[in-house]
């Protein structure tokens, strides 16, 4: 049975809605208004009109409520009629970075890196299914028993994942990841994500056209860091961005954003990140920025870095700089071009210059925990050299992470590369070719 059919059947059951529920007043509102007249109004005018009509209905037919309760009921009824119901105030709250709905009664949000449960949930499972139906219909998708998983995106950019029974055993699950706010390096420094010297060094790396991989776990701020570093790409360069869901907000004039496309209802028409990376090479890019590599497109990205597209930026899921190296190798091996690990290792050694590792602390803060340079070349075994790492202190009773960003000397060849590119580096780093500072990745 399709989702819409199930909803219509459920709505016909009178026991599902009480007289004073949001669903009841929404039904009365739809009976009262003229939909043709409403369609001619702007969204702001529609909301004002519906709020006025709902207020009159509650005054005429509803219970006596306090001013605050009455205003809250009107808002919820209009949100349900126009938008996404109980999700609307959460989407309007800039402090909310993630919304997680585990069935109609369990709604969680993430604020400042910490997950909190909300008291208000959906009135019923029907209401949650209706909200899901509205979301997926916007991208011409459907979700039902035959297609119980779907990825979508709200018009405002938020990424949405839906999974329903029979795959979910606790009812429909809805996860919304907010569109990341664009921060500058200066703002991230003020928030404690890095120290000023590291920010200046990373800016020099970008302007000197070093290939940079930004790694970290889920929710550590990889896209936010990628967006901040992209601000240092010169205005005159042609930039191609490739993402699953367009989140980057580059300020340069010559930017070509590309977005992958999932298959349609018939399972056709899919355009993958790999397809877009290959096509980007034919678009004469000065730089390629990939939101995230997670499969065979990694090999195409490495080859692009090795064929004149210096200064490319990419993110990858990994828990440390060492894990990043091997994850890139594993992902590149997933390509349909079967290369031995040794050949892929050579590609990584030649392509990747710098790895920026991000982590999220127990207190929810996101920061750079290490900046490492790939010290190996060509057929050498993987070797890394740390140029900055965050040394945390023991966590106290307040559970706040404190520590120091500790700089290390840059290898001489990297310092020379910055010099020839006309870039300076903060004096706190220095230059050294001491082999003791290089650690092999085994």
TrEMBL record:
Q: Where is the Bacterial type II secretion system protein E domain?
A: 83-360
CDD domains in the cross-refs: VirB11-like_ATPase
* InterPro entries hit by this protein: P-loop_NTPase (IPR027417), T2SS/T4SS_dom (IPR001482), T4SS_GSP_E_ATPase (IPR050921)
**One Pfam family this chain carries?**
T2SSE
**Lineage top rank: taxon:** Bacteria
Record family assignment: Belongs to the GSP E family.
Q: Can you say what this protein is called?
A: CpaF family protein
Q: Which organism is it from?
A: Actinomadura chokoriensis
């Amino acid at each position: 049975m399709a989702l819409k059919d199930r909803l219509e059947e459920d709505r016909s059951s009178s026991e599902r809605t009480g007289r004073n529920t949001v669903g009841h007043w929404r039904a009365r509102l739809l009976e009262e208004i003229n939909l043709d007249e409403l369609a001619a109004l702007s969204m702001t005018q529609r909301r004002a009109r519906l709020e006025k009509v709902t207020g009159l209905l509650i005054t005429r037919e509803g219970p006596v409520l306090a001013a605050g309760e009455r205003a809250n009921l009107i808002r919820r009824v209009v949100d349900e009629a126009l938008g996404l119901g109980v999700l609307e105030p959460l989407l309007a709250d800039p402090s909310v970075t993630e919304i997680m709905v585990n069935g109609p009664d369990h709604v969680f949000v993430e604020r400042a890196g910490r997950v909190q449960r909300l008291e208000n949930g959906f009135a019923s499972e029907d209401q949650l299914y209706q909200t899901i139906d509205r979301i997926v219909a916007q991208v011409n998708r459907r979700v039902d028993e035959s297609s119980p998983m779907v990825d979508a995106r709200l018009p405002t950019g938020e990424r949405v994942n839906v999974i329903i029974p029979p795959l979910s055993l606790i009812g429909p699950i809805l996860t919304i990841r907010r569109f990341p706010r664009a921060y500058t390096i200066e703002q991230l420094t003020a928030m404690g994500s890095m120290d000023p010297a590291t920010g200046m060094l990373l800016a020099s790396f970008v302007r000197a056209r070093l290939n940079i991989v930004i790694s970290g776990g889920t929710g550590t701020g990889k896209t936010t860091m990628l967006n901040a570093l992209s601000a240092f790409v010169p205005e005159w360069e042609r930039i191609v961005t490739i993402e699953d869901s367009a989140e980057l907000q580059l300020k340069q004039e010559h930017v070509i954003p590309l977005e992958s496309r999932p298959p349609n209802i018939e399972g056709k028409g899919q355009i993958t990140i790999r397809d877009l990376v290959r096509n980007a090479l034919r678009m004469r890019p000065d730089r390629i920025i990939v939101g995230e590599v997670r499969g065979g497109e990694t090999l195409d990205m490495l080859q692009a870095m090795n064929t004149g597209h210096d200064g490319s930026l990419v993110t990858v899921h990994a828990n440390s700089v060492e894990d990043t190296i091997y994850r890139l190798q594993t992902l590149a091996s997933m390509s349909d071009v079967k290369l031995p690990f040794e050949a892929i290792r050579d590609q990584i050694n030649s392509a990747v210059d710098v790895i920026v590792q991000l982590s999220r602390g127990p207190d929810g803060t996101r920061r750079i925990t290490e900046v490492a340079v790939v010290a190996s070349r060509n057929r050498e075994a993987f070797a890394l050299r740390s140029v900055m790492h965050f040394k945390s202190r023991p966590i106290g009773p307040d559970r706040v992470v404190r520590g120091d960003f500790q700089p290390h000397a840059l290898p001489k060849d990297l310092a020379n590369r910055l010099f020839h590119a006309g870039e300076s580096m903060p004096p706190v780093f220095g230059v050294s070719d001491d082999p003791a500072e290089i650690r092999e990745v085994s």
